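Sample intake sheet
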Amino acid sequence: MRENLNSGRAFLAVLLPILLGSSAADALAQSRDRTMPVDDMVRQADVIGVATVQSASVREETRTGLICTDFRLSFSEVWKGDPGREFTLVKPGGQLPNGQKTTVPGHEFVLKPGEPVVVFASPSRLGNHNIIGLRQGLYRLGSGENPAVFRVTEYPLKAGASSNLNLKSLKDEVWRALGRPAELPSAPSKSTLPPVEKSSESGAVAPAPAPAATSPVPPPVAESHAGAGLLIFILVLLIGGVLAFFRNRPDFNR
């Protein structure tokens, strides 16, 4: 019995890299308790985004004989890559309608149709996609406008009650790893109406008076010059009148 179990594990260790691709081989080389950094998952992933599980179907892979579960996803946000119109996420393991079952360590999680997820995926060699890091590149979403996210490694069956990580924070991490600026919250719109003030007598609300114009008034340069010229002219007339008065006196010419 023990020999059959060891042989089965050895068979899966050889089969999974062939079935899932190079990212599965990298994941098998890692400790199951080690958490992959988001930067590493972004680098390895071909497609990253927010999606909803549309369906889940179990089949037997004819080329390998391994039972697999196919999750068809519909993306609402794409952070990296192009998932195309039809996107299938394959998980090794599952149970066929006839009761035949395969359980693969690291892939015991369950996804239900209608469930929202965040997925980091890479192409497999069978024409579909697999999760980065066995199951580390898969997150469940809570509820709300900015839902909490729950890594399937810690929550294989359903989302938890609370989390230290939310969707926006995870998206910002992905954005930074891709070299993009993080999305900024939209600024609140400012009203263009003037402020209102309350009348002390009637209590009615009336618009505040418009502020006085602050543009500087130019000095009356032309008027000041004209006034100075008129004063000089009057002085000249007075001096001329005085001189004429003295010249007409009989004793002025003596």
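Comment: The longest strand covers residues 47-60. Residues 60 and 66 are 6 Å apart (CA to CA).
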